[in-house]
Amino acid sequence: MTSIINIIDNILRSSLAGAWYLMVYYGLNPKMSYDIIISGRYVEFLSSIYNIYYDLFSISIIISSIIYLFYYSLGISKKVTGQVVRYIISVILIISSYMIFHYILIISKYIFMYLWKGTDWYSIFNASKISGYSGLTLLFLNGSYFTGIVILAFSLVVRQAILIIMAFIMPVSPIFILFPGAEKYFTRIIKIVIELSLMPVLTILSLYLMRFFPADLPLQIGFIYASFILPGLIFRTISGFLRQASLFGMDASIMDYNYYSLIDYIEDRIPVDLNNVSGDEPFNDYMAGR
């Protein structure tokens, strides 16, 4: 039994360094974690699609303006003005969405590079040199270490794939603003992009602390698992905090899925009810009050 445990343990110990290397190279390496998303081969294709989005919405805003003027001239512009406000905000975000996506990644990469530089992440791993534990205990620790590295590497690679998909979704996601109550889906997409953009930053911050505890294998394992749990935990904590906060006197949160609609906030503060505008009603109401 002891010999079997030793064989399995030796296999795990020899596999740990390779798993660590793959995690650092394919998951954390700036060329893979950011550059492949910011300037990958798909960007040229995305740019061509984005130009199509831009042209279509430029044409649609002209057509919508003509339709609005037509309804307004007939005095039947009820609920049209409020929808126009939504449409204008949506078009602005559609035009600038990829730029917003790009700069979120650029800022995240800048913070990431500050932590990445000056550390040899390929050699910081030294778990295979740690000894002093019994055979079964060491097998459990090495197994946990290996599992954590594999999960972390998988999470970082999946993150890259999701962000590339988000690059295609971002230009059309502001369409949700056009539909009352659906704005939360646009907010959710923004939240996902920010969280995934900062994931390597929080991951590398946790792994950076490992260098200060080179001989403590259980604590190193703790840092490994914390590195892919921490991003989601932090964002859920921030979301919960903002959910309880009051911003500008309204129950709102840019991170909360059930946030108070910005459009409704604008409409509530315009003296004229945008859902009840029709012909000369504002003028008639003014004359009746004199």
Automatic annotation (TrEMBL):
Top-level taxonomic group: Archaea
Keywords: Membrane, Transmembrane, Transmembrane helix
Residues passing through the membrane, by range: 12-28, 49-72, 84-112, 133-155, 161-180, 192-213, 219-238
Protein name: Hypothetical membrane protein
Highest classification ranks of the organism: Archaea, Methanobacteriati, Thermoplasmatota, Thermoplasmata, Thermoplasmatales
